[in-house]
Amino acid sequence: MPMMPVTDSMFLFIETREHPMHVGGLQLFTKPDGAGPDYLKSLRESLLENSGVRSLFRRRPARPVNTRGYLAWAEDSELDLDYHFRHSALPQPGRIRELLELTSRWHSTLLDRHRPLWEVHLVEGLNDGRFALYSKIHHALMDGVSALRQLQSTLSDDPLAMDGPPPWGSRGPAQPRRGRPDALALLRGAGSTAKQLAGVPRMTAKVATEAFREHTLTLPLQAPRTMFNVAIGGARRFAAQSWPLERVRKVATAAGVSRNDVVLAMCAGALRDYLIEQRALPDAPLTAMVPVSLRSRADAGEASGNQIGALLCNLGTDRSDPAERLAVISRSMADGKRLFKELTPLQILLLSALNIAPLGASPLPGYANHTRPPFNIVISNVPGPRKQMYWNGATLDGIYPASVLLDGQALNITLTNNGDNLDFGITGCRRSVPHLQRLLLHLDTALAELEYAAR
Amino acid sequence: MPMMPVTDSMFLFIETREHPMHVGGLQLFTKPDGAGPDYLKSLRESLLENSGVRSLFRRRPARPVNTRGYLAWAEDSELDLDYHFRHSALPQPGRIRELLELTSRWHSTLLDRHRPLWEVHLVEGLNDGRFALYSKIHHALMDGVSALRQLQSTLSDDPLAMDGPPPWGSRGPAQPRRGRPDALALLRGAGSTAKQLAGVPRMTAKVATEAFREHTLTLPLQAPRTMFNVAIGGARRFAAQSWPLERVRKVATAAGVSRNDVVLAMCAGALRDYLIEQRALPDAPLTAMVPVSLRSRADAGEASGNQIGALLCNLGTDRSDPAERLAVISRSMADGKRLFKELTPLQILLLSALNIAPLGASPLPGYANHTRPPFNIVISNVPGPRKQMYWNGATLDGIYPASVLLDGQALNITLTNNGDNLDFGITGCRRSVPHLQRLLLHLDTALAELEYAAR
């Protein structure tokens, strides 16, 4: 029974009904030419027959009803694949809207701790004949970046390759996920489970405090209070859409800024319009926390390593002119002083939380005297496939990340590049962020405005 | 903010991920003659427009993340009907099997405590053109019998009546649910929330002990240990099927026993075959706990009152002869000595639990020295409509109850009469009760054997 590193088990400890700790991904596919009416049925059957299940996808908490049991993984000897891999359909009229509605529901429910912590949903019934996969995995097993990599590892740039493994499989022999940390935890933890358990609250406080140690005083804390920085419920809304990378690239070139600056300006414009619509735009500009991957290139091939940095970005939402907003954002991103160095995904999450009640850490050390949130929203740009990808002959049209929310951060925008597109996934608390899907319209408007300004 | 009686709030306290505390009902409908392709769409729209939401369906725990908040109900001022009433579809081939699979998943997930504690799912895509409704409501709001009554109250025996309210509505003016207990709790609790809260664990112990007081010594405790009497996980399987009441009636008349005796004999035969198949049939006969409603006739019209008695029934599963089993069951049911009088649904549940960890009552007082479960399974026969019923012109083909499970009771059979049929709903722990749906086949065989024996 391998011991769990504290950075993994913590995601089990801090999970509540209001804060499910899984990440998700929605993939949209066009069926291969000549796919018959039984295509999905036989696809499903062939995936179920595929016996290769990565060891990570066989792990469950050793004692699911006992916090002590969160410290070790057990192998599920009788994996019930039929439970984890589910077949679903969209109701009429089978638009993307119905797909997003279903994804929202799935992203809202807790994973069963008595089983390996993942689900994959195969979705039929899109009115344009396409199909979708929604995958969900617990943050204790994989962070969002690794989860997206895992999905990508099942794809191929060859439309004729028919050996694509299921989302829970892998092409090569199964790899240990996080070589060093796991081994380290094993050494540390093997003889001292009780000690490790006793250390959990202290360890968490440390994880949180370390993230703040150098920053408590220097953290600019200029972020205004917004409707997004509130306590949240358990229900989620998810929205997703793709935009051509070329449109973003042209704006970036014309304005002499980075593509990521343009993406942030799209988000800034959309957030401004949304908040105006909700009569909730604060006078001060919104601040985004923008995670920056610190993975080395050598890591890139595998879902491993978890060091992340983060920039605080002034989104310039107080400016009505899109070009001015873009300039503010670009300057803010170029100002490297506000860099958090080498955070773990756990620390990133803790940074975004107003309240981690299960740990008795409410408010967090660094927040004790803060009346305003350190930032208003997390906007992540996660690396995706650069080429057009395929999965057993089906064309990948989109791959949209669904994120974790915590009290204090009711909205998250995560995007990824996918061939010639940028795929945006927006996750929000269903109660705190009404009409979330309108952000898609506003993103579209924001890009058009930036193009107009840069013409 | 009305105070919650302890018997209600207890269902919030004892709920865990492994023990969701909601009851469910699956209704199967044939569309009215001449229903067009847009029938379900317009049905859904008309139900969403129906503004009448019973006050019960607007209640949520006052402070969902705080146990103190479980003691009072709050009214949800901005009920998000679109969240509670969901539209879903079956994947191909759209058989009853796919419907049961989907129902199983829905019955496994926790309700959102930030919202009124119910969901209704409208299901399209059955290959025979029918449609279904799955309704789910928290036990803190309504026990299973009341939930079934609420569903029935929306039906009519007139196929032409088109004024059927949605499952969350009512025909008449909204009624207070439990007149006396609520008022009593209000009086008791109004000035003493803290006192009531302090009393919760004591109160629970009392609720549990009272149920056992007279019975700890007399409880026969002849039930063997079986695969059903184990700790459970959170995932469920649900199976359902109808049998003609006339077939049961004929056997009862021929054998000179009650119809309920025949139903219990069907269950006994099915359980025996299932356990043989699983190589898990104990030598001693299984004992069923059979709840008996003690509602007065005056209560019958309304979803109110919760007094229930219970018989312990020897299921005779050690006998291979169906006629002998029926005789054993009939004698056992006629033996009134083992009657529990006036239990609440909470006590019934506590009786069936090996372990109520959140209350620190593990094992329960009465169980301290018991090495064997007091009974093996709960089999409930709940009153249903005697006539063929309709809902806005659609014919009700079946109404199948889905129950609550607790540690120690991994399987539950609840049935109801519905016009000319008996509708069985079987709820099981997905891990502990493999191939649950085979119990349907075995029930069918058991009835055929009883008919053969009674010919």
UniProtKB/TrEMBL annotation, chains A, B:
A single GO molecular function term of this UniProt record: diacylglycerol O-acyltransferase activity
Gene3D superfamilies: Chloramphenicol acetyltransferase-like domain (3.30.559.10), Nonribosomal peptide synthetase, condensation domain (3.30.559.30)
Domain O-acyltransferase WSD1 C-terminal residue range list: 305-450
Catalytic activity: an acyl-CoA + a 1,2-diacyl-sn-glycerol = a triacyl-sn-glycerol + CoA
InterPro entries with a match to the protein in the record: Acyl_transf_WS/DGAT (IPR014292), CAT-like_dom_sf (IPR023213), O-acyltransferase_WSD1-like (IPR045034), O-acyltransferase_WSD1_C (IPR009721), O-acyltransferase_WSD1_N (IPR004255)
GO cellular component, one term: plasma membrane
Highest rank taxon of the organism: Bacteria
UniProt keyword annotations, A-Z: Acyltransferase, Glycerol metabolism, Lipid biosynthesis, Lipid metabolism, Transferase
Functional pathway: Lipid metabolism; Glycerolipid metabolism; triacylglycerol biosynthesis
Gene Ontology BP term (one): response to nitric oxide
Domain O-acyltransferase WSD1-like N-terminal, first and last residues per copy: 7-263
Cross-referenced Pfam families: WS_DGAT_C (PF06974), WS_DGAT_cat (PF03007)
Chain segments carrying region Disordered: 156-180
Database matches in PANTHER family: O-ACYLTRANSFERASE (WSD1-LIKE) FAMILY PROTEIN, WAX ESTER SYNTHASE_DIACYLGLYCEROL ACYLTRANSFERASE 4-RELATED
Family stated for the protein in its record: Belongs to the long-chain O-acyltransferase family.
Protein name (record): Diacylglycerol O-acyltransferase
Lineage of origin: Bacteria, Bacillati, Actinomycetota, Actinomycetes, Pseudonocardiales
